[in-house]
Amino acid sequence: MILKGKLFAESPIYRGNARKTLFTRDGDGTQRLVSLAGEIEGTAEALMDAFIGRSRSGKNTGLLNQLWFRLYGSSIPEGLITKVHCSLQEKSYSRDHLFDIRMGIKLNEDRWAAEANANYKMETLYKNAAFDFAMTVNDSVLKRDENRSRLFFVLQELKEGRFWFGAGKSKGLGRCRLEMELPFSPGESPPSVSPQANHLTISLSFKLETPVLVGWPWGKIDPSKPAFAAIDGRQLIEAMRDIPQPIRKRLETTIGGPVLSPENWKKKFSEFFPRILAVWLMEQSSREEETWFLPSAAVEKLGKGKYALSQKLMERILPLADRHFQSKEAVEAAVKQELGAKANMAKRVLDVLAHERKKGKRFDSEAWSQIAEGLGFDRASGDRLAGAIQDETALASILSQECAKILPGFFQQVDQQIRLIQSDSWIDEEIAVREEHLHIKNMLREGKIEEWQWLSPDYTPQGIRSSTWKEFLESHQRVQFRHMLNSKNLNKSIINDKNLIALLEGYRDHTRQELSQPYNTDFRSGGVSNREISRKYGKPYDTVFMRMLSWAPSAQEQSMWEIYIPGSTVKGAFRKRASQLLKTLRGDSAGTTSILNRLFGEQGQRGLVYFSDAYLTDALVPGRSWCSMDGVKMDPATGGPTEEAKADYLFAFGKDLSFNLRLDIQNLSEQDMEAFSILTHLLEDFRKGDIPLGGEKTCGFGWVKGTIRNIHWITGAPPQEDSVGKKLFGKQTHARDGIWYSLNLKDEAAKEALHIAPLAPKGKKDVQPPPRSKQGFISHSAFGGYCGVLSIQGEVLTPLSIKESGEPSFVHVPDDPLEGVINGWEPFSMSPPEASLRAPSRLYALPSKSIRGMIRHIYTIASDSSKASHDISRLNPTDSLFGWVGSGPNQAIMARLSFDFALFKKAETAWFKVPYPYGMWHYVDGQWKKIPKQQASVLHIAGSWRIFPHAPLAPCVIKLDDFKPDTPRADYIKAILPGGLCRFTLRFWNLEKEELQRLLWCIALEQGLAHKMGKGRYLGFGSLRLKLLPESFLTDWADRYSGKGKRDQAGQLPISLEEWINPKVIHHHSELRKALDAQRI
Hints:
This protein is α+β, with helices and mostly antiparallel strands. 29% of the residues lie in helices and 22% in strands. It is globular and about 130 Å long.
């Protein structure tokens, strides 16, 4: 019996070779066909997944063998399943038979930053890809005992999606679901199941009420690369997704070759694009038509002969001769109308009716509407086009006028792709190495390398770099020379290298096309006086959200990009938190390592928990859900921005935006209860928002609050014998579901279901010093010293404006074009970069990076961090606390602080006109004075750090009723007025006592002092008072996880600010007091 169905990839799948990059291809890899291995065979396959079989060593068995044993406690009957075939359907291939690349990094536990040379990349088959699945079953074996019923429920597990194939199962990869109509039933009673068999699924979701940015590791520009190198025109055209596919294909054929000059190529595109559109429209309008007519010669004969029609009737019907009609019925109606009362004679006339087929052109309005809608043309032009449908030249001329309106947008994408030629230079380096490997393998195949040379690392073949030769030998050190010369293996290895080069080159092209799209391009200034803010001057955002290629029925030829958070990111975040907690409460012991390995796995051993990718509830993210933020480094000496250090971030935010993920655990045993109790604490921490996901954690990104939506527990043990289930859920009612006893909890019942057992801390509850690494810096490996959360309120004292990110909300175009445009800037808000997508009601905020920069500047002065940090073992006080990035590998460390965005609940605003230059205005002796020919006064502390003193608004600043620009020699900004209140939190961990004392002083300052931030600080804008709120607390880790106290307040120790403010730890204290004095306002 052959059972046939379809297997769907619910998540991407990876099944790779030893190099851990390419998905294993069928045969020698030439056709790049892929399938999921049916049976374990050979040597390399013994380490990889297959549906059935057993390796010679017995260490690897088929996944169906494993599932059978897990369910029934016995081996699958010999010969029951004789063959499994699972090949990818043709429609799930890309055009080049290459797929997605999933990349990841390893974070150093001490630095909480990337570990050098520890990243990985894997080619994964598309999520939603479909396989043709066929299983051959031995009928005679199937009829024995309970085999039919048992096989039915084994396949039922696949149908329920509780089946994983390939590598990376615990990191979001490999989950599959089978669709199959079985020709047999399970029988009257289900077979008995092993009481140890069980499966727990915990479904979670989190809304993006906190900004999230999981960065995509592509598009990083290398300025040292040439500004322009050869690029293929086909690649440029493929990125123009608004152009219908048939038009793109013709453009690729016409101008898809190498681009030697971008400007010349743009001219060719401008010329060929309307012409190809014209030809396509003419083809759509060309059709073969069948027409009916009365031939004139035959009509004339009707008036002759013995039974001729009368002269009067002939005069009526002769005008119809040779006139073409669309149907036979139309001719008949016309003849009868002409004959009038003699309509009964129509049959004689219609006897001579003839018809013919001929080609004609009739304007296809539907095809034009499709083109116009996709490209943004004026549909009304259809009337002009219809009149010119017979004339290709005239048609192209009309279309050229329409194309002229949209060409700048396409050329902007071209410029972005050309700029991205400088991106991801590591691909070129890897390809160069791979090409040298190819050269070595070809030399081996041609007999140009002998065995003695193979054994000598000092021998370097001609044309190969010494480093590459040594790396090649090292990567093949376990391969004997005679095995290396095996022609079959060597040829396959050569094809693998060629496929890998094609994968890397092709995927980089795909990423460049995606990054060049308008929605991934930031707004920059240009034009007259550098005042025009447009994407045409922009570049791809420095960081955009993680995405992958997935298959979708709507995608034409190529797959579509889908936003997601990798399971490896979720798993890594949970593991980091678990490691910190266990090392804090129980120490860095063998027991801690054992629990971590059981939960999350180790080399050669899969972890207990399978973490899925996190996918958006709605994959089509609306544009208004993407917000942008600019990060501009400030020069501490001048207080001005360092434009070359500007970074732009495109992040996800919004209460209507949510992600879903799931955790799966199989065969949970009583021995796993201790490890599982750690997981329950992690889920509780995730609920509280204490497990950050993604990047920019120190700027408030990723601290999401997860909610358990559903818990599904199935077990083979009857309820009265389900000891594991009782420990998890107590006495709950189980429903019979096939072979399982099932418990399904939703919403509130699911949230409260898991019992959270206290963690037993070892050691004293006294504050322990922060952990330190071997290099001497304070480590992130555990919690120590002072940790907690500061809740802070900001009060605006003088009008404050940090300008919005992206394009300005208001633009005025003067009559004189030489004056350029005049921009009107709203304050920063949690909004999209495009003005048209911003909501009328803004959520104003102070960006986390701006707050962080403001506090860091004061902390730098207060800690006298004037000396630069030279390496990670010699950090100055500010770099130690706020984080540091040096040069060279492993020379970066994450901050021990995380600043949130400060959101305004209510804020009154007003427009201000700020003329420039304004350096002649000086605030002296409590009043503003205009002193011509003098530069702006500068207040420095210790000759190194500039501070803007507090002052009321200068007289030159004019408050406006609305945005009413009258001169380009001024800035027009909307500012938040005094009295506006905002709130934010600041998380901190592993601080020494002096660090916390200094940090608290730098935030709350002293009575009568205040901060300054934003635009126009010199002229009195931006005074801000920060106040520590009673919700602030220090964390007592032992108490927090003791199971005592209120659920959301356990371990929280109130902070008495008076006890912590210590001016003795503040360097330049008197100078800071004077500079930050806000009494004058």
